[in-house]
UniProtKB/TrEMBL annotation:
Domain AB hydrolase-1: from-to ranges: 2-254
GO molecular function: hydrolase activity
Native species: Mycobacterium intracellulare (strain ATCC 13950 / DSM 43223 / JCM 6384 / NCTC 13025 / 3600)
InterPro entries: AB_hydrolase_1, AB_hydrolase_fold, Carboxylesterase_BioH
Signal peptide: none
Protein name: Alpha/beta hydrolase fold family hydrolase
Keywords noted in UniProt: Hydrolase
Length: 268
């Protein structure tokens, strides 16, 4: 079994192609919407602490049961959740750990760019075309789709006709002040978070793969090397021509890297 954890601002649909290919390869696959994202409930307190994401992952793990531990694949926020989980739960719960363009220490400017994009349109978009233009500007590596129906998976239409993201805006406002406004140049809290996640990485015992987008501004060669010092048994691979959203930029190469690793190191 493989559990797929999406990134911040995404939802389970981000894994649709990967999930189909993993299933066709013989794996049981589960992708779920993180709290405050997709079709999952918004947190009533408006607080999205990492401990809550960890608790949700552990609840999913308990619900699926299985005699054999599942493998974890986490992109961005999903990967951060995996790292934090290793501080709060036994490492033996998992058959493998695959982190997708995320390391305990991220490059500050890259993380800031993501959060700035997510926080930039709190009132949404007038049309799907407007949204598509903004998304294409943010990620020019992907061709702008001619058919915009796919945007319904990441946007919902309010009663006033405007299109807004399918995630709780409080997810950003409650967690990423260090990357916004006047605090965007203050890295003290950012470094404290990195130290917390580094301790989680040290506790990983399962076979581990770090998949990096070769053009990523979030994970650099330097942060990869730091990760390997924390998890010496880990393997790493770069996916050419991709940025932070590796699976969406080149799903063929990404899924091939994942299946090769799982076949070779885990589900022999």
């Amino acid at each position: 079994m493989v559990l797929l954890l999406h990134g911040g601002g995404q939802n389970r649909h981000a894994w649709a192609t990967t999930a189909r290919r993993l299933h066709a390869h013989g794996y049981t696959v589960i992708a779920y919407d993180t709290r405050g994202h997709g079709d999952s409930d918004w947190d009533p307190s408006g607080q999205y602490d990492v401990e809550k994401f960890v608790a949700d992952l552990l609840s999913v793990r308990e619900h699926v049961g299985t005699e054999s531990p599942p493998a974890l694949v986490g992109a961005s926020l999903g990967g951060l959740t995996i790292l934090a989980t290793h501080l709060l739960a036994p490492a033996g719960l998992w058959a493998a750990v695959i982190l997708v363009d995320i390391t305990p220490r991220m490059e500050f400017h890259g993380a800031r760019r993501i959060v700035s994009f997510m926080a930039a349109h709190p009132d949404g978009f007038g049309t799907l075309t407007d949204a598509a233009d903004i998304i294409a500007e943010y990620n020019p590596r992907r061709p702008r789709p001619e058919n915009l129906d796919g945007l319904h998976k990441v946007l919902r239409q309010r009663s006033d006709g405007r299109w807004v993201w399918r995630w709780d805006p409080a997810f950003i406002s409650s967690n990423f002040d260090v990357l916004q406004g006047e605090l965007m140049t203050d890295t003290e809290e950012f470094e404290a978070i990195s130290g917390f996640l580094a301790e989680g990485a040290r506790r990983i015992t399962a076979p581990t793969l770090l998949v990096r987008g070769a053009l990523s501004d979030v994970v650099s060669e330097e942060t990869v090397n730091e990760f390997l010092e924390l998890v010496p048994h880990a393997e790493t691979t770069d996916v050419t021509g991709t940025g932070h959203m590796v699976a969406g930029d080149d799903n063929d190469a990404f899924t091939s890297a994942v299946t090769d690793f799982l076949d070779r190191r885990v589900f022999l």
